[in-house]
Amino acid sequence: IFSHGDSDIEKTRKIYNHITENIRYVGFELGIGGIQPREADQTYISRMGDCKDMTLVLVALLREAGIDSRFALVRTREKGKANIAVPYIGDFNHAICYVKIDKGASGPVEFFLDGTAEDSGFRELPEEIWDATAFVLDEKNYHFINTKSGFYIHGIQNVSTRVTMDGNGNADLERSLIISGNSAPDARSNF
Question: Is the confidence at residue 43, as pLDDT, over 90?
Fold first, then answer.
């Protein structure tokens, strides 16, 4: 999936792209499947899983590559803010991967990856989980961390229009739209 000479950021990007390109999102939300993820190897072999399953695969592959990663739960924007006074799994409706890469003297880079966001690029987080409180779990503890991060490409929209008139008064119109950052996944999905 990656080369051993790759930086931690590059390893993370390659693993994320591998997951989003090779594992299809399928909601397993009936019975215990709505709460308990399947084993990571089962998801990887079957090439399908829900957000919990895909997050477990991401965490497993990143950890195998030596990257600090953790399972995180988030409440999507349409559900409103999560009540973090008393953590309750029922307050959260989506699973994502928290990543922390040590950059030495400049400090760590912390960000989130959504393995189900097939229209998102590596440095883009879907708007429905942007600036949300994530419930980040590790083996012994939990933390609440905001999903907003300087790691992501900021939302940029650039529209340009070129009009060319011919001698008969006919117009040729050419329009270009460039969208990047957290609004790009929705734009890709719509086009």
Answer: yes
72 closest CA partner among 146, 152, 137, 149? 137
Over the stretch 95-141, which tens digit does the pLDDT of each residue have? Answer: 999 999 998 788 899 999 999 988 888 998 888 998 999 999 988 99
**CA distances to 11, 62, 91, 111, 126 from 131, in Å:** 25, 23, 16, 11, 10
CA–CA gap between residue 1 and residue 109 (Å, rounded): 22
Instruction: Give the single-character DSSP code of 45.
Output: H
Residues of the chain by 3-state class (helix, strand, coil), percent to 5 = 30, 30, 40
What span, in angstroms and rounded, lies between the C-alpha atoms of 110 and 150?
A: 9
SS3 of residue 111 by DSSP: strand
Strand 142-146 to strand 48-49: parallel, antiparallel, or no bridges (unpaired)?
unpaired
Please, what is the angle between helix 51-64 and helix 8-22, to 10°?
150
User: Is pLDDT at 191 greater than 90 in this prediction?
Assistant: no
Residue position matching structure tokens 């559900």: 79
Residues in the chain: 191
Output b/e per residue, 157-188; b: 16+ Cβ within 10 A: eeeeeeeeeeeeeeeeeeeeeebbbbbbbeee
